# Entry
Amino acid sequence: MITTAQPSMRPYGRQVLLCNHGDCVDPAVAEGLQRRLMELCRAYGLTKLQNPHRIKCTLADCLGVCQKGPILAVYPDGIWYHSVTEAVLEQIFQRHFLQGQPLESHIFHRLYPAGSEPVYPPTVRHDPARVLPDSINIASAVVPEEVIPDSDVQTADAIRAAVRRAKKKKGLIIVNTGEGKGKTTAALGVMTRAWGRKMRIGVLQFLKNEHARFGEIKAAARMGDIDWISTGDGWTWTSDNLDETVAKARHAWSIAQERIVHGGYDLLLLDEFTYPLHYGWLDINEVLAWLEANKPPMLHLIITGRYAPQNLIDFADLVTEMRAIKHPFAEQGIRAQAGIEY
# Structure
C-alpha cells in the first residue's frame, strides 16, 4: 500500500487579500499596494519563510465588493478595509499588524464582533514572540513620522541617523524580471562594477546554450577572474528535448548550490533562473528555504528572467521590472545585432 505524507505549510501570522479586479480599483494600484506592503514586511522581517509571524499578501481577482476600493481583507481577524491608499496601508501595517489595534476609521465589515476575533495564530501555536528590528531599512520602507507609534521616541531623522551610524551591510538578493529587454544586461552592468572593485564573481546561465559565445562571454574571458558556467541547451520554446532541458536546469541548480556554499564569491549571477521556478522544474519554496539557510551573509545574488514568482519577489531585497515600450524587432523588423543584443 502506498502512503503519502499529509500536506504541510509554513506558519504565518496573517493572510492579507487585496482586490485587483478592476471594477473598484485600477489593478496597477492594487499591485502597487501589494509591493508597498511587502516592502514594509521585509523591513520588519515579516516575509522570512521561517518566521511564524510572517504576513502573506495575495492579489484576489474579486472580493465581491465593487465600490470604495481598494479593498483589503485581513485574516484570521476577518476585518475588511475600504479606500486603502498607500498612507492608509502604512497605518494599517503599523497599528493593526504591529500593534494589534485595527484602524477603525477604514473598517467597513467585520466577520466577528469587535474584541471577539480569532486568537492570533502564533499565540495559539505558542510560537516565539515576534522580535522587531531596532531600526527599519529606510531605503526600502520609509515609514512617515505620523504613523510611527507615539511610544517611539525616535523620529524619522533619528532612525536615518541610526542607520548611517550602524553602517549595516548585507549580501543582497537582486531580481531583474519583466517582459522588457535588459534584465541580463543590467545584471552584467553590476557584474562589471563588481569586477572593477576586485570582487570575486561567478555567472551561471540556466537556459542559454552551453556552447554559445555571446559578446558578454567573450568580454568576461578577456577581463579574466570571472567564473562563467553555461549549462543550458537553448530556450524552452526551441528545445528538441524538453526533458533534457529540465534535467539540465535541475543540474544547474545543484551546481549553483555548490558554488553558493563553496565558491567564495562576492557576487553570483543566476541568469534566467526564474524560468525553472516559473515552470515548476524546481520547487520555489524549497529553493528559497535553502537560500535562507545556506547563502553566505555577504554574498550578493542576482537572479534574472521573466515571470519571477511572487514568493521570490517577496524574498528578494531589490526587484526591478523591465517593461517593454518599444522594440526594434516588433516596430521595425530589425533583428538582434551583435554587440547590442548578444
In short: The chain has eleven helices and eleven strands.
